[in-house]
Amino acid sequence: MSVLIVVDTKNGQVKKSSLEAAQYGAKVAAAIGGEAVALSLNANNAEVLGTVGVNKVLNVTDASISASDPQKVVAAIVAAANQIGAKVVVFAHDSTGKAVAPRLSAKSGAGLVTNVTSLPDTSNGFVVSKNVFSGKAHAQVNILSDEKIVSILPNAFGVKAGEGSASVEAFSVDVSGINSGITVKEVKGGDSKVVPLPEAELVVSAGRGLKGPENWGMIEEMAEILGATTACSRPVADIGWRPHHEHVGQTGVAIRPNLYIAVGISGAIQHLAGVNGSKVIVVINKDPEAPFFKAADYGVVGDAFEVVPRLNEAFRKFKAANG
Amino acid sequence: MKILVPISKVPDTTSKIAFTDGDSKFNEEGIQWIVNPYDEWYALVRALEIVEAGGGSVTVINVGDATSDPVIRKALALGANDAVRIDVNPADSYVIAKEIAAYAADKGFDMVLLGKETINYNGSEVGGMLAEFMNLPYISLASKLDVNGGTATLERSIEGGVEVVEVKLPLVASASKGMAEQRIPNMRGIMAARTKPLTIVAASGAQAKTAYVKYGLPAAKSAVKLVDPENMDELVRLLHEEAKSI
To answer: How does pLDDT run across B101-145, given as a tens digit for each residue?
Structure first.
């Protein structure tokens, strides 16, 4: 029983979330005694998939087959799955997985579980854990159909690359008969060097406690020192101090970084729901009663305008000493 | 423009999450149910805006039992013209999508617009499944949607940016933040909602592909470790040596 992993690329390079999904798929293949095969969408560095345990890569070399047009990607997946006899298809739960995996489920009749945070327990069915209630709880879900699709929550497993290698074969599918009517007119900001929030391992975030958008310089400075991605609370995005795509929380972007530093955010339940998967949370707030302190690992009770410059200085010293 | 907006019934965002029956069921005691915020704030409001500007109708649809009726009335109070409830337990996303697709197949909707996910199951599944069942293009995670004649222009969130796409109608799109501004229903809308049609239809018999076996809560966090605001070197040391996060 082979496992097929759908691997997407950004600027020709395998996405980090896809590498994580490939590593997961390789572990599932090892557990069920099958081969881990990746279907990569126009990757220039497909061989990197071998380092996370993938045995073989089928590399699509047709730019029209991209996540912008899910119907074509689904056609490629169905062809690849048939070729290798895949029973399990793995995606990253990123923009590609969200666009393509449900379509594949409906097309193939395979049960789908998204946001997955565990390897499958196959002792009684095919049971995986997933986050529910916006990270406030988790659920175990059994996939009842013979063929199964899972999409992996980004940053839930991390990537531990080894020394393995994978064979890479060109893979072609005729999608000329598929006319979905979708035309990509423009891509804005996709080339940014900033790590996107769902993939970021370090996130520096701020809220209304900063009093105005003109005070974000020290937050951006901290992000720059750490190589972190900036984020904000919902009210800050709503009043237009920061762009909507930076809003983390229940109705914004859900994140799971290694480190989340929250400055001047009180920690409403809706905000916590989107960030409580963070491995370490640091809260800086002048109100010692701020509810966020209950969810934090480390807290600093103090005025952000005094604490943050001091912390930036300490981070800078640390970076200078540790490279 | 004839727009279909699937809506879900979800617990209020501030609900305390707990489980009963050996952690196999969500504890509904004391829960206030609301329209899923992504369905309401973004998909439904944008659908209403499009119809207000260019004419047409907005139909909301829900898969669920009679306990969904109050949230369906809320959607009608916001301005939807009529509502449909498919009378079956929404066992999983596959059932929901298949039932909605079966209903919508011959109704000639120009657009199906729903939230990017529900805040309870966080699946991001129904939109894509619906599009496949209905054989329509699907634009996920749309933060902007404009319609010009038979063509829609949408902005779709991708990692670190947005993709601007043009799609011929009909289509299915899932809505995320940025698509529209939340509305509050006014008294006139609430009164009108009482008499707007809510049609209850029988299910087609779709079968679930997944089963929720058990729920759990995250492990409790240990107490916060407070660091002297004058001593940020200590915080950095803790993050490096103890938390190993930098």
So the answer is: 999 999 999 999 999 999 999 999 999 999 999 999 999 999 999
Contact B209 A17 (CB under 8 A): no
* Per-residue pLDDT reduced to its tens digit, B196-205: 999 999 999 9
Residue in B with minimal Cα distance to A189: B161
ipTM over 0.90? The verdict is: yes
Contacts of B210 (CB under 8 A, 6+ apart): A111, A112, A113, A141, A142, A143, A144, B92, B94
DSSP structure string for A174-231: --TT----EEEEEEESTT-SSPPGGG-SEEEEE-GGG-SGGGTHHHHHHHHHHTPEEE
pLDDT given at position B55: 97
What is the C-alpha to C-alpha distance for residues A268 and A249, in angstroms, rounded to an integer?
9
Residue A245's pLDDT band, with cuts at 50, 70 and 90, is confident
Separation of alpha carbons B172 and B114, rounded Å: 8
pLDDT surpasses 70 at A192? no
- Please, which residues 98-127 of chain B have a Cβ atom closer than 8 Å to chain A? 98, 116, 119-127
CB contact under 8 Å between B221 and A295, yes or no, is yes
CA A12 distance to own-chain centroid: 18
Residues in chain B within 8 Å Cβ distance of A189: 160-162
- Residue A100 to residue A148: CA distance in whole angstroms: 14
Phi (first) and psi of residue A42, to 5 degrees: 60, 50
A76, A53 in Cβ contact below 8 A? no
Single pTM value for the model: 0.93
CA atoms within 13 A on the CB side of A21: 35
How far B239 CA lies from chain A's nearest CA (Å)? 9
DSSP state of A48: G
Distance CA A98, CA A68 (A): 11
CB–CB contact A301 B226 (8 Å): yes
- Give the closest of B37, B125, B208 to A102, CB-based: B125
Beta bridge partners of B33: B11
- In this predicted structure, what is the pLDDT of residue A191? 58
